[in-house]
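We give the chain.
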Amino acid sequence: MIGFGFCVAAQAQEQTNQFLMAWNATGYTINAAGKVIATNLTAQTLINKVAYDNGINPKDCAFVYRVEKRDTAVVWKSTGAFIADVYQVEYTYEDVTNETGTINYCESLLNDEYHTNAIGSTFGLEQKTYNREGYLVGYTYHGSFHCAFPEDNVVFTGSFSTGARVFLKSTDD
């Protein structure tokens, strides 16, 4: 099941490049009467699952995209500290990047920790802005995805987009 963990100091810089992520999908499955019905999958659905699995309040959590890790995770709203991975797009991907490294067209397989094989794929446009020191100061990533969960007989299609940066704050008072 989804593990419970926290960032260590060595990961602090990497973890600061995480951004709120909207994740919305419509799923299609068959009900008991044999009719196709629609269901949904949202960032809140994913937060609720992680919160339930870890015995925490979902109101204390946020769903984020972690740029360098190329994954999505649930983090603590108050500190930005890691709680659990959700989906990864880090294993098989192709980026077409402009000459300045500020625009990427990204295609990737979508993975999770419950399935051996990819569960779907994503396509998106990633835009980055850097300051003179080379630090990421602006970031957007938006696109679409599709995935399937055969054990639940459901297929999903949806969209995603990033929002505000979620800073990793020290928990030392």
Q: What stands out?
A: Strands lie at 18-30, 36-42, 61-66, 71-76, 82-88, 93-97, 103-110, 120-130, 136-149, 154-165. Helices lie at 12-15, 43-54. The chain has two helices and ten strands.
